[in-house]
Amino acid sequence: MSIFTFPEILPSKCSFKVQANTKALFSPYNQVEEIWQGSGEKWLVSLYYRVLKREDGIALRAHIHRLQGQVNRTQIRDFSHINRGSFAGTPLVNSAGQYGLVLNVKGFTANTAVAFAGDRFQVADRLHELTADVISDVLGNATLPLWPEIINSPAINEPLITLNPRSKFMVKDPMQMPDFARSARFFKDIRLDFIETLRP
């Protein structure tokens, strides 16, 4: 199974959202809810191309065919996202064995508001979004509250990728792939849906 980088072909619309792994169970007697929460939240991506130049459409179609349904994976960035924070410094994972909804990081510029809620970064091939602002301490360390949760612990000194961070995806439903119908010069109304893959 191979991993390929998604082509830098700007979509007309780009949607990145997290699908939470939760379920509400309601009492049959008084309708009081009980919430079940599991791990394994996943990013869902939808890319829509209103019009594609012929060469871009052919390149995109070839990339989709290269994935062989759900066999291979593709690394996709959110074409519509821009971080507000600078992530100043050289942020690295501070220790091994980290899981859950926070990540301890070192290497930031000291005593600095390095990132803001909604900013995103990539670590260990996975995309995460900050759920609160982050300020580094006097040593350049910081704790990053994030979502989705870390389920595969990154290695110590793993760098944080903050420029065009990506995650790994597979085609959401190979049976619902778009028809790459086109005129002589253009492809029109192409929508591609992907779901994050968590396998190694």
Helical fraction: under 10%
* Overall strand count: 15
Rg, Å, rounded: 19 Å
**N-to-C order of helices and strands:** EEEEEHEEEEEEEEEE
Mean residue pLDDT: 94
User: Which range does the strand content fall in?
Assistant: over 45%
Topology (elements, then pairings):
Layout: E1 3-5, E2 13-19, E3 22-26, E4 33-37, E5 42-53, H1 54-66, E6 73-77, E7 89-93, E8 100-108, E9 113-115, E10 120-123, E11 126-130, E12 134-135, E13 142-150, E14 166-171, E15 186-196
Parallel strand pairs: 1-6
Antiparallel strand pairs: 2-5, 3-4, 5-15, 6-14, 7-8, 8-13, 9-12, 10-11, 11-13, 14-15
Describe this structure in words.
The protein has about 200 residues and is mostly beta strands. The chain folds into two domains: about 5-80 and about 165-195, Phosphorylase Kinase, domain 1; about 90-150, no CATH class. It has one helix and 15 strands, in the order E-E-E-E-E-H-E-E-E-E-E-E-E-E-E-E. The chain has one helix at about 55-65, and strands spanning about 5, 15-20, 20-25, 35, 40-55, 75, 90-95, 100-110, 115, 120-125, 125-130, 135, 140-150, 165-170, 185-195. The strands form four sheets. A six-stranded mixed β-sheet has the order 1-6-14-15-5-2, covered by helices on one side. Strands 7-8-13-11-10 form a five-stranded antiparallel β-sheet, with no helix packed on it. Strands 3-4 form a two-stranded antiparallel ribbon. A hairpin with a 6-residue loop joins strand 7 (about 90-95) and strand 8. The protein starts with a strand and ends with a strand. The model has no long low-confidence stretch (mean pLDDT about 95).
